[in-house]
Design goal:
The protein folds into 2 domains: 187 residues, Rossmann fold, CATH 3.40.50.300; 89 residues. With 289 residues, it is an alpha/beta fold. About 2% of the residues have low confidence. It has 12 helices and 9 strands. Helices cover 41% and strands 16% of the residues. The strands form 3 sheets. The protein has a 5-stranded parallel beta sheet, with helices on both faces. Strands 3-4 form a two-stranded antiparallel ribbon. It has a two-stranded antiparallel ribbon with strand order 6-7. Helix 8 packs across helix 9 and helix 9 runs antiparallel to helix 12.
């Protein structure tokens, strides 16, 4: 078992928080992901501490990447990253060969990619939007994700076995154009953690910590806007993009300088493709602001 060890001060704080059943402000550094409930953080830390891979599943802009970065910070472990797309290939994952020189002698050198780097250093590997990759690409790393923690590098024929501490955090947005369902063999290599939208008082704290907006009345209005957008997404009236927390934080920042309605227009509305959705969001903005 390749286990991570949390720093002792984090272990102590975590055990105290579990007993008290409250939130974890001491654990989360400035700008980190504040989970909407205890279980989300406890379960992620528990799985990683046991050497298991985790799959963060949730809507766009819910904070999955920030969650991964926060976990990396908590474990005081660097994190190599892969951003998946339909163009993802073996070189993007594992590395590539290139010409180099030793003195005047020309030679072929292998430059390791994020998977090989994370395995050899025994650190986190973050795979973002894992379901954007072509189905034939990801099986390359099946052996990396299961108990073997091993891969034969097709470019060098080297058998690479991960150092202690290596594990994988992946993120997935389901139902988006260009995504494909994860096959069961791949999904079964992960512990799945649902990452919901941050709402209510927690969203208010997030705005206060991570944006330049300090007008409490205005912050409350943005929290109400977010709640209305999330409700509309759940009712099928809007796409998930409209309720992105990342976009909402951008709107809060812009509203310090320009009017809130223009901030919402630039940060949220102009990203939407359908005129019906654009009008819906602007009507909400008109009502609140």
């Amino acid at each position: 078992m390749h286990n991570y060890q949390l720093p002792q001060e984090i272990q102590h704080l975590l055990s105290e928080r579990i007993r008290k059943d409250d939130m974890f402000p001491e654990l989360i550094r400035d700008g980190g992901y504040m989970p909407p409930n205890n279980e989300l953080l406890i379960d992620a830390i528990t799985a990683l501490s046991m050497g298991k891979n985790i799959l963060l599943k949730g809507p766009t802009g819910a904070g999955k990447t920030k969650f991964a970065e926060t976990l990396s910070s908590l474990f005081q472990q660097p994190m190599f990253s892969v951003n998946c797309s339909v163009d993802l290939d073996a070189e993007s994952l594992l590395g590539f060969k290139t010409l180099s020189y030793e003195g005047e002698k020309q030679m072929i050198e292998f430059i390791p990619g994020p998977v090989i780097n994370a395995m050899k250093h025994g650190t986190f590997l973050y795979i973002d939007e894992i379901n954007m990759a072509k189905p034939e690409t990801l099986p390359l790393i099946n052996g990396v994700l299961d108990y073997r923690r091993t891969i034969t590098n097709p470019f060098t024929n080297e058998v690479v076995t991960a150092k202690d501490g290596f594990t994988v955090i992946a993120a997935i947005n389901e139902g988006y154009i260009g995504t494909v369902p994860l096959n069961e063999a791949l999904k079964n290599r992960f512990i799945v953690i649902e990452v919901p939208y941050i709402e209510g008082e927690q969203l208010k704290q997030l705005i206060q910590r991570n944006t330049k907006l300090d007008d409490e009345k205005m912050i409350d209005l943005f929290v109400k806007l977010s709640a209305d957008l999330i409700q509309a997404v759940r009712q099928g009236k809007l796409s998930e993009d409209a309720a992105s927390i990342r976009a909402l934080l951008d709107a809060c920042d812009l509203s310090v300088v320009i009017t809130p309605k223009r901030a919402i227009l630039r940060s949220i509305v102009d990203k939407l493709d359908e005129e019906r959705e654009r009008e819906f969001v602007m009507n909400l903005a008109e009502t609140l602001f």
